[in-house]
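tool=predict chain=A
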Amino acid sequence: MSDVVLTGFCDETCEDKNLERQFAVSAALGLEWISLRFYNLGAGVKNILAADQADLDQIKSLLDKYGLRVSSIGSPIGKIKLHDIQDGTPNQFRPFDSYLEQEVERICAIADFLQAPLVRGFSFYHPRGTSAQNHLSEAAMRLRAIAQRCQAKNLIFGLEVEANLIGQTGELVQQLVEQAGATNLVSIFDGANLVVQGLSASAVWREYLAMRGSLGWVHVKDYQSDSQPAGERTVAKSPHVDEESLSAFVPVGLGDAAYQQVLPDLKREVQNVTERLRLGGWEESLVFLDLEPHLRKGGQFGGYSGPDGFGLALRYLCRMLDKSKVSYRLRDWPLKQSV
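tool=predict ok
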């Protein structure tokens, strides 16, 4: 059995988010699993949260056609303001009770219908200029409520570390998971999301270690902070990151996101991660590396690499895994289904 299973945000393959092309490219690259975020079925680009039943039926049909399974729903859950305060950001506020009953319930229903075991989410925006630490308790309480809704559908809720949110570091994400106290709430490591805040490779590694005790899966995205050799860069930590201006995403191993250290350590942690997922309610308990390269463009709610960029990013990842002696799963002979 392989140490990890490779999956990816397939919307990064197509600029117009055409779903059948997303799936065709993913299958051609050898993926058996994909993460869903944005799609286009002919009526314009939609976030997966906006999918109605007709859309879901088409998505399910295309998944079957291309022999794909959904590893995670790349939802925007938790990417809203914690408080209804004007702080100079365009982030939206939603009253939490209605948010729980509408958006959260809907994303759970979507994941359940598509048989996705994992739901990616976030830790809320605290008012800009305030300390994330001061909002941990309230955010954890809301995350526990979201996790409970996910648990009712046997879903794992993953909390992604990301700039500008309360869970902007590995340490803060770990504290949120611990305070929330939900067995199906896990953390998602994303090295580039730490580098863009000004962390060096050694600091990113420390943040990974801080959140390792709650790790559920890993996003693979690397970022080069300047022109110095990878791993040697040190820059001042930024209090706020303009995500739309980020432009130095690179294939894994060419930046400062510490995957050279993270991936071998993940191999050692596989049993702990699978047990954590099993305790959260997912019996299959596979450890996913979720490719999200952003090689041509990144932003607050998504990114784009193109079919060539996504393929290149996958090859760089496979090379690093081979070098690190981490075994991984892609499609293999004999083919399971004709597409």
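The domain at 4-329 is CATH 3.20.20.150 (TIM Barrel). The chain has a mean pLDDT of 95.
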